[in-house]
Amino acid sequence: MGVCGGANNHIGDQERLDRLRLIRSDNIGPRTFRDLLNHFGSAGAALDALPDLARRGRARDPIRVCPPADAERELAAAARIGVTFVAKGEPEYPARLREIDDAPPLLGVRGNVNILTQPMVGIVGSRNASAAGLKFAQLIARDLGEAGFMIVSGLARGIDAAAHRATVASGTVAVLAGGHDRIYPPEHGELAQALLRTGAAVSEMPIGWEPRARDFPRRNRLISGMAAGVVIVEAAQRSGSLITARFALEQGREVFAVPGSPLDPRAEGTNRLIKQGATPVTEAADVINVLAPILGRLPEPPGPAPTPSGLLERPDSDQVTTGVLALLGPTPVAIDDLIRLSGAAPATVRMVLLELEIAGRLRRGRGGLVALV
Fold first, then answer.
1. Domains held by the chain: number
2. pLDDT exceeds cutoff 50 at 310
3. Taking the model in full, what pTM does it have?
4. Is residue 241 assigned to a domain?
5. Which of 27, 54, 274, 341 has an alpha carbon 20 to 30 Å from 358's alpha carbon atom?
């Protein structure tokens, strides 16, 4: 089993600090973090290798590796407001979230950390919700909560807040787009504090991080990733809730949609989801009947096998890098195609891609596609 996949063991304080440093270093996202940890066996070894990996990837400037003091300050700031960093693979880390391709290596959790092991259903929808939409969100959230599901949502105005408020007593999880000390919207600070008594707030972002527009889709992938299914209550054609639905489909989650009047723009997105195959929902039983058999046979997928520690030895290093660079461009391509066209060993091509990403020259897209920056 891969190191990053974990074996439900707790990591030590030094490894937790090193993992925080690694994910806060330049050009290190969740996928790159996973590859580095699986290859080098520990975050400390990966940190030591970063400068050489960036050099081999032909970085234009030296890579910034997060200093220990910066990570220590973040850990101290988190502790002051009651945030614990849970590592992927530890028993408290949400099992379903661990399955997704870009799961956060560390999840900052405040509140009841044990709630994250319970089955969850996401409920999201329009910020500018109708009165009927708000009432239905409250009803279905309450009924699902009473049936034993934890409700996960994004603490946004409208449908999200209604779902959270209806399940403060039974347990709800708020996924934040910013740091734990930067609640958005600000007027939901009291709601966030109230749900911590039985539920939890989670974030992958640093303490002090002000949420930006691009951070909300990142948050949405965590809502769907933590849940067995996602209920969309109201969504206009260009709603962020439809982004959550798309993530849910990509992650293999069930998508449910509440039908609405064809005359209401806030129902355009949900009605279209139903036409595309989403399960229509008019009561909690519609969700429970679909999810019950799925949860009854939930498997624990094995992680990727780790490769030996140390830098991968590969022949003609410069020649392989040059060949892969020649095949790359701004248009995303599949890694399998790069391997086939380059004629190099798969492990060698993947290491070149890792080096290029650490050097800030590669971006990864959905479906395993890569492109040159």
1. 3
2. no
3. 0.82
4. yes
5. 341
